[in-house]
Design goal:
- The protein is of the alpha/beta class.
- The protein has two domains: 6-178, HUPs (Rossmann fold, 3-Layer(aba) Sandwich); 191-282, Pantoate--beta-alanine Ligase, Chain: A,domain 2 (2-Layer Sandwich), CATH 3.30.1300.
- 38% of the residues lie in helices and 19% in strands.
- The chain is built from ten helices and nine strands.
- The protein has helices at 11-23, 39-51, 79-88, 99-102, 122-125, 129-144, 156-168, 198-203, 206-219, 224-237; strands at residues 6-8, 28-33, 54-59, 93-95, 148-152, 174-178, 241-249, 264-272, 275-282.
- The chain has a six-stranded parallel sheet, sandwiched between helices. It has a three-stranded antiparallel sheet with strand order 7-8-9, covered by helices on one side.
- Strand 5 (148-152), helix 7 (156-168) and strand 6 form a beta-alpha-beta unit.
- Helix 6 (129-144) packs across helix 7 (156-168) and helix 9 (206-219) runs antiparallel to helix 10 (224-237).
- The longest helix is centred in the middle third of the chain and has 16 residues, at 129-144.
- The radius of gyration is 19 Å and the shape is globular.
- It starts with 5 loop residues before the first strand and ends with a strand.
- The structure holds adenosine monophosphate.
- Residues 33-34, 40-41, 43-44, 151-152, 154-155, 178, 180-181, 188-191 line the site of adenosine monophosphate (AMP).
Length: 283
């Protein structure tokens, strides 16, 4: 039988728990999440266990990264099953603050990330997003003071933003990127996949499939613009409306049109019905 993880909901309780973990000279890896946990999150926890002696998972649906018209109110909240999964993974501590604990009355400070945060991908469609992410992640790092923090490549631009921020602000945490975990048909796991109707769910694997074909064709010598144009058409023919489908330098996120310019990544964001999905692959 695995032990239930300790749950902290207030800053003093978190401080006590973290001090206790550190007293036993343990290294700590933090896995920030918004709950509604799936196998993608579980893979992050497993990677965290490989990096550090103790694993802290934060579960906090961060209002600061949602625009008023977005899905903060309806975002899936599945605390009981989340906790069961974290217990199965033998997580040491779950940090589950409420909004007032994270953003008490009078809260007035914000991180404004630049560089990868203004690369013209997610930021073009969700201008509030990376400011909200950077602010909450900086707070999580200050609160937990982890040695490592694990982020999924699923949110590729976010991984780059957080990595840059940790370096720029000397936050003394190593950011570790984890590969995208997919359903058997290729759809990237996401807490938002539950929004998809049966028809939309059937269409959704086209994102991965089209990018994979484009990537293969580019590696076989096809021009970026032709390969990406064909992928865009396949995605739109399946019923999606594209926000973007682009090739970028895998590190700088600068636009890239040639494999000789460095490691390349293809990134997509697309909407079907009321659901917006993102994904990316190495080219
Ligand atoms: P979220 O709860 O959606 O904010 O995600 C929390 C963390 O899990 C982020 O670092 C995500 O990139 C990561 N994540 C979400 N989905 C996946 C996935 N399918 N594979 C790997 N990591 C993921």
């Amino acid at each position: 039988m695995s032990h239930a993880p300790l749950i902290a909901r207030t800053i003093p309780a978190l401080n006590r728990a973290c001090n206790d973990l550190k007293k036993r000279s343990a290294t700590i890896a933090l896995v920030p999440t918004m709950g509604a946990l799936h196998d993608g999150h579980v893979s992050l926890v497993r990677l965290a266990k490989k990096r550090a002696k103790r694993v802290v998972v934060s579960v906090f649906v961060n209002p600061a990264q949602f625009a008023p018209h977005e899905d903060f109110a309806s975002y899936p909240r599945t605390w009981k099953t989340d906790l069961a999964k974290l217990r199965d993974e033998e997580v040491d501590l779950v940090w589950n603050p409420d909004t007032d604990t994270m953003y008490p009355d009078g809260f007035a400070t914000r991180i404004v990330p630049e560089g990868p945060a203004v690369a013209g991908l997610e930021d073009r469609f969700r201008p509030h997003f990376f400011g909200g992410v950077a602010t909450v992640v900086a707070k999580l790092f200050t609160q937990v003071r982890p040695d490592f923090a694990i982020f999924g490549q699923k949110d590729y631009q976010q991984l780059k933003v957080v990595t840059r921020m940790a370096r720029d602000l000397d936050l003394r945490v190593s950011i570790v990127g984890a590969p995208v975990v997919r359903e058997r048909d290729g759809l990237a796991m996401s807490s938002r996949n539950v929004y998809l109707s049966a028809d939309e769910r059937r269409a959704a694997p086209v994102l991965f499939r089209a990018m994979k074909t484009a990537s293969k064709n580019i590696r076989a010598g096809e021009a970026f613009v032709a390969a990406i144009g064909a992928a865009a058409k396949a995605i739109e023919d399946a019923g999606f409306k594209l926000d973007y489908l682009e090739a970028r330098h895998a590190e700088t996120l600068a636009p890239i049109t040639d494999l000789s310019a460095g490691p390349a990544r293809m990134l997509v964001a697309a909407r079907i019905g009321t659901t917006r999905l993102i994904d990316n692959i190495a080219i």
